[in-house]
């Protein structure tokens, strides 16, 4: 069984977007280099960022996201992002009306059920859970193995928190990866058990 990784780009003060969901310059690092990160031609990062992010992306089998993110991205137009095989959407509303039945998208009620479904689909590959409310729920439930952050040099002051509404203390190990790229600091922490 693969590990569960909580992941997102984050501001220095711990936000993944402003209150209105605007990420501002949070993703500036994804276009601040000269090494293509994927086939889109849009994502170009530094070599250090590429060497860290690309192998990670290649190991992801399933992404877990909340219904809010799914709706904001318009379901990624029916294609899971970044070449990921499946997306598990945590929602109390079920499959959106009119949504074409696509095998890559699974609509599940509750974080525990979402993680179980994602692990089933991922096999020994990584299950990634988007930071924010859904990621915070997974961390609070003791399901997260690792926290990855791409820290961008921006201060929001307020907004959508990386750890969502987590209101209890959770200890992480010392960072085992600290990589400086262009306009980003990549960090990786194991969750202390």
UniProtKB/TrEMBL annotation:
Pfam families (alphabetical): RibD_C (PF01872)
InterPro entries: DHFR-like_dom_sf, RibDG_C
Bacterial bifunctional deaminase-reductase C-terminal domain sequence ranges: 86-172
A GO term, aspect molecular function: 5-amino-6-(5-phosphoribosylamino)uracil reductase activity
Gene Ontology terms describing biological process: riboflavin biosynthetic process
Name of the protein this chain belongs to: Dihydrofolate reductase
Organism whose genome encodes this protein: Nocardia stercoris
């Amino acid at each position: 069984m693969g590990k569960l990784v909580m992941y997102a780009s984050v501001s220095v003060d711990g936000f993944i977007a402003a209150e209105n969901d605007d990420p501002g310059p949070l993703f500036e690092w994804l276009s601040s280099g000269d090494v293509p990160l994927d086939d889109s031609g849009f994502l170009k990062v530094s070599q250090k960022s590429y060497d860290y992010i690309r192998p990670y992306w290649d190991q992801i089998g399933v992404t877990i996201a909340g219904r809010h993110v799914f709706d904001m991205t318009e379901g990624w137009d029916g294609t899971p992002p970044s070449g990921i095989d499946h997306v598990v959407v945590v929602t109390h509303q079920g499959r959106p009306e009119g949504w074409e039945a696509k095998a890559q998208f699974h609509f599940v009620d509750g974080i525990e059920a979402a993680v179980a479904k994602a692990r089933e689909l991922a096999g020994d590959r990584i299950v990634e859970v988007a930071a924010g409310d859904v990621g915070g729920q997974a961390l609070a439930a003791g399901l997260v193995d690792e926290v990855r952050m791409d820290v961008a040099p921006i201060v929001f002051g307020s907004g959508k928190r990386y750890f969502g509404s987590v209101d209890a203390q959770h200890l992480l190990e010392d960072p085992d990866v600290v990589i400086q790229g262009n306009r980003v600091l990549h960090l990786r922490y194991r969750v202390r058990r």
